[in-house]
């Protein structure tokens, strides 16, 4: 009979009953860069997924208890409430820093999470009758990937979050100018809450 005592990513300690005595065993395990509980390749999208966290998410869920179809339905219902030529731009929460290099624990903006299901910082969601659901995703540099892990990009926005269009965030100004015909009309901007 074995009783797990402590399980770390690279070490396992357990108690084993030998006769009437409990013997403490310590086993060193090499870390393997693959999921031992599934045979499919795990795609890292910068947040938990059913493949990477099967104990947390069921198949088809983006967040615990909420499927990707639910997020599509939420966007559809939101678009029905928008005026005919209305446009909604919802920004993800930024990363806030305690000191120069120490961030606070990240908490996603509730509106952005409710509409997209995306739990990473720095994105933009644009919803409108003409453009549908468009996401502008931040681009990760090699330094960020090493220290913070992979983040969802344009491909993940289309495949995982079911965006109709997706662009890198650096193309936001370019897409805005194309949509406005090269100019801005600040008089037409209204904030409705």
UniProtKB/TrEMBL annotation:
GO terms for biological process: proteolysis. It comes from the Eukaryota. The keyword Metal-binding applies. GO terms for cellular component: mitochondrion. Residues 66-189 form the Aminopeptidase P N-terminal domain. One of its GO terms (molecular function) is metalloaminopeptidase activity. The keyword Transcription regulation does not apply. Residues 171-193 are annotated as: Disordered. InterPro entries: Aminopep_P_N (IPR007865), Creatin/AminoP/Spt16_N (IPR029149), X-Pro_dipept-like (IPR052433). Keywords: Aminopeptidase, Hydrolase, Metal-binding, Protease. PANTHER family: XAA-PRO AMINOPEPTIDASE 3. Belongs to the peptidase M24B family. This is Putative Xaa-Pro aminopeptidase 3. The lineage of its organism: Eukaryota, Viridiplantae, Streptophyta, Embryophyta, Tracheophyta.
